[in-house]
From TrEMBL:
InterPro entries per the UniProt record, alphabetical: Ankyrin_rpt-contain_sf, PGG_dom
Positions in coiled-coil regions: none
Native source species: Penstemon smallii
UniProt keyword annotation of Transmembrane helix present: yes
Stated name of the protein: PGG domain-containing protein
Amino acid sequence: MEHGGGLITTSRVLKLFHEMGWDILRCLVPEIKYIHDRKLVNDEAVKLLSCIFQEMRQLSKLELEKMDLNTIIYDAIKHGIIEFITEMLKYNPEIIWKKDERGRTIFSHAIVLRQEKIFSLIYGLGTKKSIMVRRHDIFRNNYLHLAAKLSPPSQLERVSGAALQMQRELQWFKEVEKIVQPKLKEEVNENNKTPEVLFSDEHKELVKDAESWMKNTAGSSMIVGTLIAAVMFTTAFTVPGGNKNDTGLPTMLESHPQGFMIFMVSNALSMFSSSTSLLMFLGILTARYAEEDFLKSLPTKLIFGLACLFFSVATMMASFGASLYLILHDQLSWVTIPIIVLSIIPIALFSICQFPLLIEMTNRTYGSGIFNKPKKISSNN
């Protein structure tokens, strides 16, 4: 009994610590409570949805037709409610073959509406996938034709910058291209267009906007990189404290070797990185801007250019701080610390302005991708 009582006491203590931990976490991070509440609501909604589908098994075919399931399913796909589609497939797996008045299945709509989570369910169909991807609508569009169409404005607006929007469009097209049969890539629709031709026609304006966005971003960054390179080049030959008349060596090299080395190394790193960023931005400005370039080539150049530019700004400020230290530390040493601290501000501002774009572009270019491949969909039949 004592042993059992000890277990109960331990369990209560652990539960108490767990509750206290949650209370502290909610106080420190208020958003945690919101996320937790939303998760609970979502779980309850999925349970309710499952119950509704269980009850629907009792309905007749006529009663189901009155419910207008096509509209309900379309709205669920349009808003990306994957929980609804997943439960629907558990309730009736054969619904994947159901077509609307335009001859489109749920996966056709997922492609047109650019709902990658719902489209990713196709990877869980097993052997049925190869049959599904051969489907056509009444306009003789196969899946690759649908992927070639321009995304709805609501989906394009979710991505910042025309270049990233174009990249996302290419990612969709390439992903669907991987799963369709080779002969479907050359198939024409009722307008006598292959998927590739349709893609080019649909994305003409977006390519122009993406090119303009890339050139403007590269041009603005190039100005900053040029200024940094010019300043660092000049600073390398006008070292603080001047040079000795007899040897020409910097005077600070002997009196403050460590501080001087920090100054010179950071100066050199800033010079090299800013020069590298200039070459990357120059490569962007002189690119041919073919559609394929927006998938990896141009984003990679911009990522590398922005990363080098950020590094050059950081090392430039380090060089500036080291220079002030060498000049003022003997007589006005108290001034150097606040000035060096203030030099962090430009780095912070640059990070706030450019880092979100850099991270987003890196994630979209080299991340796990917008599609996931779930396990086979289970049925409740």
